[in-house]
Design goal:
By secondary structure, this protein is of the alpha/beta class. The protein is built from 18 helices and 18 strands. The strands form four sheets. The chain has an eleven-stranded mixed β-sheet, sandwiched between helices. Strands 3-4-7 form a three-stranded mixed β-sheet, with no helix packed on it. The N and C termini lie far apart (82 Å).
């Protein structure tokens, strides 16, 4: 018996005699393409390993600032992967509702990812790669909310990724394009995501993952990135399924699709005495100066930092999807009922007359049908009706269109609408979990980001005021998400049936305690908004 114990220390799998059960000894050291990594146990139960702060590209600093991520160089010995890396450089904020955050370690040297590995595995496992939200200007991969331990216990490998943000990740400028071999600038944050997916292809086998079964998933700006990656020819073969939560990439790019006009204005704001600004000039700008200028100049306002650069995105994603040339992968997509609570301002003083004026001016001959469709919201207040219309216009409609585009090319497509109301909490502040909303922690409705604690099954680790229904919702959502990652179909025994979406049926699973299957959830409202957007597109193309 002593001999068997000694052998177990030296080998991964030993048998202590004929007919006795085998014992799996899981090494915390993994061999990657560039060297060895030593991880840690995720918690005392020792059924999940975590590898923190794994580099997937060279630090994008100095001459590598505003360049595609450079390949790693190999190291000797065993590199520690027991500590999270710094967040990418971004603003500290205290006034962003659920995204409120205090101070944390941040750096330009931030291209690192984290991997959670369940040890009870007998075959290669599906891989889920997470891209966080934050308007492409904030956020990071190791927020407690995104701890992958519980998801990993569902039988998947979980990868969370840092990527360059704000001007470091998305500044487009003619000087940067001129030095690019691809005649491109901007979208460095998207290129970081592509590099992380290439790292997965090259290395995830060492962790027990299946490189041929990779699902990318993200929320808000992360979901927008998932959408954009599906439209990018550079992503071919890097993933096999996609989950998008509360944001698509079908922006109207207007007169500056490349983003270089906006980037040139930011550069001029920073270097007003320079008649002609070079890439070298830009790389000499201090981090804080760059951050402050991006905010002061309004460069980072209005979202849509992803650019049509001719390389990462040869065309506007809306056109790529409409033509059916996007990645033909299964998708699971959806939005929440009250996304606009913190995204869209609400003018409490809005009168019904003002609301009518807005409807007529904006929607023309569709004004009256839209007013009737939103009569319930209007009966509560014109301000609520306006925010509800805009929520559906900017969230529910694009997610439905995305689902429809995939269904049209024969890819399995599953659409959800979450109206379950979670308690609101600060995601980046473990010391301030309760937002102290005047009408209680659940008074924000099904708000933007409200599904995240359920997606990662971390309802006991973040925030306050969780109950048994929250636990049920977390189990339901993680069951659906991980089953989809395994098979491309979220249906799993013990959970309500989820029928695929098609433009004919509009099947939608409502995510709530009941788990209702609703053919055409919000159909009347979204159909009207779809007609409006089609009319706008026709006008713009003339």
């Amino acid at each position: 018996m002593i001999r068997c114990v000694l052998l177990a220390v030296c080998t991964l799998l030993v048998s202590c005699g004929e007919g006795e059960p085998q014992t799996m000894i899981h090494s915390l050291v993994k061999e990657t393409q560039h060297g060895s990594l030593r991880g840690a146990w995720a918690d005392p139960s020792r059924d999940v390993q975590v590898f923190r702060g794994i580099p997937f590209a060279q630090p994008p600093v100095g001459e590598l600032r505003w360049r595609p991520p450079a390949p790693l160089t190999s190291w000797t010995g065993i590199k520690s992967a027991q500590t999270f890396a710094d967040a990418c450089y971004q603003e500290f904020s205290e006034d962003a509702f659920v995204w409120s955050r205090g101070e944390f370690d941040r750096s330009e040297d931030c291209l690192y990812l984290n991997v959670w590995v369940p040890v009870d595995q007998t075959e290669p496992l599906p891989v889920m790669v997470w891209f966080h939200g934050g308007a492409h200007t904030g956020g990071f991969a190791h927020v407690p909310l995104f701890d992958g331990t519980e998801l990993a216990r569902k039988g998947v490998l979980v990868v969370t990724v840092n990527y360059r943000l704000g001007p470091w990740g998305f500044l487009a400028h003619p000087a940067l394009r001129s030095e690019s071999e691809h005649d491109s600038s901007g979208n460095y944050g998207l290129l970081d995501k592509l590099a992380s997916l290439q790292w997965v292809q090259n290395n995830i086998k060492a962790f027990g993952g299946d490189a041929s079964n990779v699902t990318i998933f993200g929320q808000s700006a992360g979901s927008m990135s998932v959408c954009a990656l599906m439209a990018s020819p550079l992503s071919d073969g890097l993933f096999h399924k996609a989950i998008g939560q509360s944001a698509a990439c079908f922006n109207r790019y207007g007169r500056d699709p490349s983003g270089e006009e906006r980037g040139s204005k930011l550069a001029a704001f920073l270097l007003p005495d320079k008649a002609e600004i070079s890439a070298e000039d830009l790389r000499g700008i201090d981090n804080d100066a760059l951050l402050n200028a991006a905010t002061a100049s309004g460069w980072d306002q209005g979202g849509g930092l992803i650019a049509v650069d001719g390389w990462v995105l040869p065309d506007a994603p809306a056109k790529t999807f409409a033509s059916g040339t996007q990645a033909p992968v299964p998708v699971l997509l959806g939005s929440l009922a009250n996304e606009g609570v913190e995204l869209l301002p609400m003018n409490a003083d809005l009168t019904e007359a003002d609301f009518d004026t807005y409807l007529n001016k904006t929607f023309g001959d569709l004004a009256q049908p839209i007013q009737r469709a939103y009569q319930t919201e209007l009966s509560q207040s014109p301000a609520l009706a306006l925010r509800s219309i805009n929520t559906d216009l900017f969230m529910a409609l694009p997610m439905r269109r995305w689902a429809g585009h995939q269904a049209n090319i024969g890819a399995p497509s599953y659409l959800y609408y979450m109206d379950y109301v979670p308690p609101a909490y600060q995601m980046y502040r473990a010391d301030q979990p309760d937002l102290n909303l005047p009408d209680g922690p659940r008074s924000a409705g099904a708000y933007h980001s409200g599904e995240l604690a359920y997606v990662f099954n971390n309802v006991g680790k973040v925030g306050d005021f969780w109950n048994q229904d929250d636990t049920l919702m977390a189990e339901r959502i993680t069951d659906y998400w991980t089953q989809f990652a395994r098979t491309g179909n979220p249906n799993i025994a013990g959970q309500p049936e989820w029928d695929p979406y098609s433009p004919e049926t509009h099947n939608t699973l409502t995510l709530n305690v009941e788990g209702l299957q609703i053919p055409g959830a919000l159909r009347e409202k979204v159909d009207l908004l779809d007609r409006f957007m089609n009319k706008q597109s026709s006008k713009n193309s003339q």
